[in-house]
Design brief:
390 residues, CBS-domain, 16 strands, 23% strand, binds magnesium ion, binds adenosine-5'-triphosphate
Length: 390
């Protein structure tokens, strides 16, 4: 990652709750863990030595069980909680060293926040609620209202400007919360369990909305969730927290393919891995099954039932049923090739989309890159193995 891509960087951040955090820090340095420190001193380790960077324009999800430190982490970003040690930089500027006044300014201009239960002012209209943060920032009324209208349109609430919160459904109220954060055009959007209180249909609608907003606006979003399905759906990268530590950071595929420990693995057991894995994550290339076309009759490997015929650039020409192929009749090349419907599977084809293809083909499914070059194959047994492993 180049430095310019980093929008938020977290270095050696610790947060210990209690009257004497220095003592707890000494114990941590001496190798004590969260449980031992709590048992012996009553101090709670909220975040333990966090180190990572969030890139411009990504949705970075922080996931973990209740009490693992997610909310503490996000509150450290805007310094609603002061770190016990370590530093946090936003766009290269150290926010852990800011004065109160500078901090207010950064929060106002750079950060938008959406929480689970978003407190709308009951006596204010939707428009006024959306413009609320801007008023504090000292922006003129005309400008506030025009920005608020625009933000409401972005979250699908155009036409509801003059409604009052009690006239809105829970999902709509949450959209107002999102619009309020967007009206400020923040550098990063911090969302702590922002959709967790919504019922499933509305929730998935909001997830789609967020993905669309991010795609259109390239916003940097830090999204806290304890829900693996939600994390996989919206996260470009996911950080997994366990007992105050960030135990792993990666793309959904990386976490599924190489979980760092049992805790991470358990999260994904609940999840239908076929929706996230791509054909390219599973395909394997057996060189013995590949024959190169060189103008003459190809030399096939007679020990395997099917051979994959490629040209000099690696492009897949055909799949040949070995038994039907007559090697010495080079003039009739092509007649013996296994004829079939062409249903190319590419390395970025989601696994669940190729389940039907794999079931229908008699040979391992060839997996191509976008130029048509053969990258590997997926047999039914490899597929089953992969899906049962997770
Ligand atoms: N102000 C506080 N004082 C003392 N302990 C705290 C405080 N805030 C959080 N903690 C403790 O820090 C740990 C992390 O809490 P945090 O709220 O960050 O968890 P979380 O991952 O957000 O959980 P949830 O999914 O339930 O929201 C917990 O053990 C919690 O009890
Ligand atoms: Mg929380």
């Amino acid at each position: 990652m180049s430095h310019a891509d980093e929008i938020l960087s977290v270095r050696n951040i610790f947060k210990v709750f209690g009257p004497n955090p220095d003592m707890a820090m000494d114990m941590l340095r001496g190798g004590a863990d969260k449980d031992e420190i709590f048992r012996k001193t009553g101090h709670v380790v909220g975040v333990f030595d966090a180190n990572f960077s969030v890139k411009r324009g990504e949705i970075f999800v922080i996931m973990g069980l209740s009490g693992s430190g997610k909310s503490t982490m996000v509150r450290l970003f805007n310094r609603l909680i002061e770190p016990t040690s370590g530093s946090i930089h936003l766009k290269g500027r150290e926010i852990t060293g800011l004065s109160d006044k500078e901090l207010l300014d950064v929060r106002r201009k750079e950060m938008g926040m959406v929480f689970q239960s978003f407190a709308l002012m009951p006596h204010m209209s939707v428009l006024e609620n959306t413009a609320f943060g801007l008023e504090i920032a000292g922006i003129s009324e005309a400008e506030r209202h025009s920005r608020a209208r625009e933000a409401l349109a972005q979250v699908g609430l155009a036409g509801h400007e003059h409604s009052y919160p009690h006239q809105l459904s829970g999902g709509m109220q949450q959209r107002v919360g999102l619009a309020r954060a967007l009206a400020n055009d923040p550098t990063i959007l911090l969302m702590d369990e922002a959709f967790s209180a919504l019922d499933p249909l509305i929730r998935s609608e909001m997830q789609e909305e967020l993905i669309r907003l991010q795609t259109e606006q390239q916003r940097t979003i830090i999204f806290i969730s304890h829900d693996i399905e939600e994390a996989m759906r919206i996260g470009h990268r996911i950080a997994i927290m366990q007992g105050g530590r960030v135990v792993q950071i990666g793309t959904p595929q990386e976490l599924i393919n190489r979980p760092a420990n049992d805790y991470v693995r358990t999260f994904f057991k609940a999840f239908d891995s076929s929706r996230v894995l791509k054909a390219g994550d599973v395909a394997m290339l057996d060189p013995d099954s590949v024959s190169k076309m060189n103008g003459k009759a190809p030399e096939l490997n007679k020990d395997i039932p099917y051979n994959y015929l490629i040209d000099e650039h690696g492009l897949l020409l055909d799949v040949i049923k070995t038994r039907d192929f007559v090697a010495d009749s080079s003039d009739s090349l092509g007649k013996h090739y296994h004829t079939r419907e062409k249903q190319p599977v590419y390395i970025d084809t989601p696994l669940h989309e190729m389940l039907g293809i794999a079931a229908a083909l008699p040979y391992p499914v060839p997996v191509l890159d976008r130029t048509g070059a053969l990258k590997g194959t997926i047999s039914q047994s490899l597929l089953l193995q992969t899906l049962s492993r997770v």
